[in-house]
Amino acid sequence: MASVEDDGYNEYLYKILVVGDIGTGKTSIIKRFVHNIFSMHYKSTIGVDFALKVLNWDPRTEVRLQLWDIAGQERFGSMTRVYYKEAVGAMITFDVTRASTFEAVSKWKADIDSKVTIGAEEKPIPVVLLANKCDLGKEGFIKTANEMDKYCKDNGFIGWFETSAKENLNIEKAARFLVEHILKSDVKRNSPPQDTVQPGLATPPPPTSSGCCNK
Ligand SMILES: Nc1nc2c(ncn2[C@@H]2O[C@H](COP(=O)(O)OP(=O)(O)O)[C@@H](O)[C@H]2O)c(=O)[nH]1
Ligand SMILES: [Mg+2]
């Protein structure tokens, strides 16, 4: 997305998708990451929600992550193409206690890969896999670490993390890992700079001609 360079100080604004089946913890992960709060009682997200997280990457670099919390119900519908537009990275979540949510991961990955790419070369966007709710114990976790490594390699994930929104485990680490990959890629060269980056605002895009972002 946007990059602003001034006297050697860099600001980047990256659109990051957070997808995965319903109830896997997408909203919880974002709330923990952005506001450092957790609740057992989030209402299910309707349509799409936005949040902004500012990372002071290094003394000369600020990274603003615009996190798109996409409702589980939207899966593979015509909506996702609009939501995915201009994303430069994604997190796919599953719930370690529910195997069906892991089975859905490859479908989410295929959905992203088919609808959003980077640059003229149409490279896939970097995607990190989050094995969430790891505080609930390992019994439900159906894969070993080695199997997960292999799964990521075979399916084009940049990596995976066991996370817990409840116990604040590995969420920031996973996000930073994703940002490292984005910074390393040539996103900057391929994106048109925007004039301003509004402090503290995650602005949804203007309504599209179909108007479906307002759903
Ligand atoms: N134990 C535990 N529960 C979690 C965790 N993350 C989310 N939850 C709970 O799982 C339910 C669904 O979470 P939510 O964030 O709404 O999932 P979403 O539908 O993917 O956005 C809620 O009751 C959360 O409190 C976690 O890391 N550990
Ligand atoms: Mg949600």
UniProtKB/TrEMBL annotation:
Note whether GTP-binding occurs among the keywords. Answer: yes
**Biological process per Gene Ontology, one example term:** phagosome-lysosome fusion
GO terms of molecular function? GTP binding; GTPase activity
The way this protein sits in the membrane is described as: Lipid-anchor
Q: Which GO terms describe its cellular component?
A: late endosome; lysosome; membrane; phagocytic vesicle; trans-Golgi network
Top-level taxon of the source organism: Eukaryota
Keywords on this record? GTP-binding, Lipoprotein, Membrane, Nucleotide-binding, Prenylation
Where is this gene product found? Answer: Membrane
PANTHER family annotated for this entry? RAB FAMILY, RAS-RELATED PROTEIN RAB
Protein family:
Belongs to the small GTPase superfamily. Rab family.
Q: What does this protein do?
A: The small GTPases Rab are key regulators in vesicle trafficking.
Q: What is this protein called?
A: Ras-related protein Rab
Q: Which organism is it from?
A: Cavenderia fasciculata (Slime mold)
Q: Lineage in the entry?
A: Eukaryota, Amoebozoa, Evosea, Eumycetozoa, Dictyostelia
Q: Which gene encodes it?
A: rab32A
